[in-house]
Amino acid sequence: MLNAYSKNKEVVTLLNLSREEIEQLKGRKYFCPVCCQPVRIKNGKIKLPHFSHYNQSSCSIYSEGETREHLALKEVFVKWCEKNRIGYELEKYLPALNQRPDLLIGNIALEIQCSPLSTQRLVERTKSYQQHGYIPIWICGKKLFSNRYKLNEVVKNLCYYSEGLGFYLWTADWETEELAIHSHIEEDFKKRIYSSKKIWSFYSDFLLEILDFPQKSKIYTQRKFKIGSLIAEYYSELNRKLYTRDEKIRMLQAELYNNRLHLLQLPNWFYYPGLHIFCCRDSDMLLKVRIWNFVQFFDQNVFDHSALICLLKVELVQSAELFYELPNISFKTVQTYCLNQILTYLIACNHLVNVEKGWKVQIGSSDQTISDVGDWLKKIENNCLITATPLKNVIR
After folding, report:
1. Using CA atoms, how far apart are residues 116 and 297, in angstroms rounded to an integer?
2. Which of 322, 326, 340, 237 is nearest to 283 (CA)?
């Protein structure tokens, strides 16, 4: 905590003070702006100077200590606002929400997340901001975003989505002094991420314009995958995990058995394109099972476009528990994204065929064998897939 009350209810801040000046403030009485309990100044050599509760504190907002990284990044954004002459409130307590953003800039609640946070708490805080008219912007610290090739569940739920940038994530690196946006995030079947990155050095540009970048910008990106190799690797991995009795694969196989399917003898669509539908928790095959049941039921039927979209939307609503919470993204947006991916894959695998009156559903051969899958993989071993964002909209 960088702010506290004096005994006269005046706000005392430790920002922009030298350590010598802060030493002179010691010995006076200070109180937490949330719980009004006594706090003390800590002016050590490692962390930034800050106020801290005594050991027996029961404060609901300041109960967790802040890391050196977190304190340093708060100071960066305060100085950035001051340099740009942007009005801000540091650690402003919002009683109606019982929350305290790191910085409040107008109706923007800037939150710097450097430590793990439960998904439930993240969702609660984000929804509370939104319900009270605030725009939460979560910025992920370097420690939390330490693995740049995979996103853990907390970081995944810190993502946003826009038509111009696809899925994107804000990060800040206090050591390289950079604010970055990772856009057009995609995952393969191993949850390895691919993304584009735009960087701003601290204090280099007007902060509000940077924070508004996702709403006003489009970055066109094309990514080329060797789809034959990707799907073959995916199939091989499924085979290996099934053989080693991997717990998650066993659970998936049990669900497939309930639908008279086998993990290694699925229609090609289940393996295509070797990329994971980003917003799906665990394997996206569980979602594909439900969509496949729909496709099978309507085999050889012809739908006009709007009727097909309506039916698939209903399936996605009923499958909502398969998705990450993604509190910064509306379910409608998640639904639209998933629908686009599903339609694209069904069309590519010829399970949806465009005919004069709309779309014809056809499941093709239902007696797929392991040998059939092997023959298919040989046929597509040199094929490539180009993914691009902004996403081509299949939904008209």
Report:
1. 44
2. 322
* 89-90 vs 103-105, strand pairing mode: antiparallel
d(CA 377, CA 236): 11
Which residues sit opposite 138 in a β-bridge? 111
Helix (H) / strand (E) element for 355: namely strand 352-355
One-letter amino acid at 385 equals: L
Provide φ and ψ at 275, rounded to 5°. Answer: -100, 145
Asked if residues 346 and 308 have their Cβ atoms less than 8 Å apart, the reply is no
For residue 82, give every residue at least 6 positions away whose Cβ sits within 8 Å of its Cβ, in sequence order, or none: none
- d(C-alpha 258, C-alpha 260), whole Å: 6
Structure tokens that stand for 303 in this block: 């739908």
Q: CA 343 to CA 171: how far, in whole Å?
A: 32
Classify 343 as helix, strand or coil. helix
pTM listed for this prediction: 0.85
Mean pLDDT per 10-residue interval, the chain, length 396 residues: 80 81 83 82 78 73 70 92 94 89 96 91 95 97 85 94 93 96 93 93 96 89 91 95 92 92 93 94 92 90 92 93 96 94 92 91 83 93 83 63
What residues pair up with 275 in beta bridges, in sequence order? 188
Alpha helices by DSSP H, listed for 172-226, are: 207-211, 213-216
**Closest-CA residue to 187 (of 69, 97, 274):** 274
